[in-house]
Write a structure and sequence with these properties.
Radius of gyration: 27 Å
Number of strands: 2
Structural class: mainly alpha
Largest sheet: 2 strands, antiparallel
Order of helices and strands: HHHHHHHEEHHH
Length: about 210
């Protein structure tokens, strides 16, 4: 009588091992494991990854200054002259760069949330880019003899969603965000007094 597992079990073992090899190859992809890795391969274009965005945000969070000190009213005063105001703006932008970045992102988020049509326009743009990107994964997209790269795909998605952005008043939204950002950041940078270390650094600079 032959030793070892029955023939049927051998067949099942071979099928399981092949299936395991198939899925292990997907799991070994650097973009992630399991379903997350597959979705990352389908959605994220080459050169971009969720880990890169997370790393950028983490760096900003580490360099952010305490918000309590950032908005401390006792440290705000009117600059004595235009020269002092310029010094404050330059140094405060350097010191509170990460804080200003999050303020800018917050204004963008507020503008998007407060405009339903802008949300629809963004959904159309993301959907168009996603479909175009999926098609490019299946086979190379060629227009006028040139292969569509990721920037070309984004441009095509933007062209498709341009009428929706126009109806949503995206131009006005962009100007509002830029204006609000310049007003908030400019006012804070001009009226926020410099820290003691910054003043000493200015005094030590050669004239």
């Amino acid at each position: 009588m032959p030793s070892g597992a029955p023939k049927g079990e051998n067949c099942l073992v071979d099928m399981d091992s092949k299936a395991g090899d198939l899925f292990s190859a997907d799991d070994a992809h650097p973009t992630g494991t399991g379903g997350a890795g597959i979705m990352a391969k389908l959605w994220l274009p080459k050169g971009f990854s969720a880990s890169m965005a997370k790393e950028w945000i983490d760096r900003r969070r580490l360099s952010i200054r305490p918000w309590a000190s950032f908005v401390d009213q006792r440290k705000f005063s009117k600059p004595r002259n235009f020269g002092e105001m310029c010094q404050r703006v330059v140094k405060n932008v350097e010191t509170y760069n990460s804080n200003y970045t999050f303020i800018f992102l917050g204004l963008i988020l507020y503008c998007i949330i407060s405009s339903p049509m802008l949300l629809i326009a963004l959904a159309v743009f993301i959907g168009a880019f996603y479909i175009i990107h999926l098609k490019s994964l299946e086979s190379k997209l060629v227009i006028l003899g040139k292969e569509l790269t990721v920037p070309h795909q984004m441009s095509l998605a933007g062209a498709v969603s341009l009428p929706v952005f126009w109806l949503a008043g995206a131009g006005a939204a962009v100007f509002w965000v830029l204006g609000a950002t310049l007003f908030v950041i400019g006012s804070h940078a001009a009226f926020r007094e410099l820290e003691g270390s910054d003043i000493e650094e200015l005094l030590m600079e050669p004239v």
